[in-house]
Amino acid sequence: MAAIERSCCFTGHRPMKLPWGMNEDDPRCLELKLELAARLEAIYELGYRHFICGMALGCDMYFAEAVLEMKAVHNDVTLEAAIPFGDQPGRWNEKQRKRYNRLIDSADKITVLQYGYTADCMMRRNRYMVDHAGLLLACFDGRPGGTMNTILYAQRGGKTVVIVDIGES
Predict the structure, then answer these.
(1) pTM of the full predicted structure?
(2) How is the chain split into domains, by residue range?
């Protein structure tokens, strides 16, 4: 497989769109994290080795942590942090910044798309990830927004899209 065909990127919601918000002890959040780990293992078995994450709060962090757990088992796994702008965690609280920095420190590759914030920097980051991957894994509840736009962009580009439904039941 070529590099892009062996790469998987991720999109998903931030805490304000998740039914459990910031409460990662919620059973639904714990279930999603297990589902992500299982999906990633299945994607690994299909030959994907490079995983690209946008490093946002919420589902992105869950994805990055699951990739790092998988990397502990499979030494050929790599994690790329695709950072939309240099000061992405600048307005986050200390706990969130520490988590982000731990993930960045564990990444195999760091790609910063631009220095400062602009209104389109998140979209540019999402398009970078899709353009550099053959598969998009998405945690999605069906509502419009950046996650939906990323899924539609990937579909228009002929990428494989795997959706984990996180809609309220």
Answers:
(1) 0.95
(2) 4-165
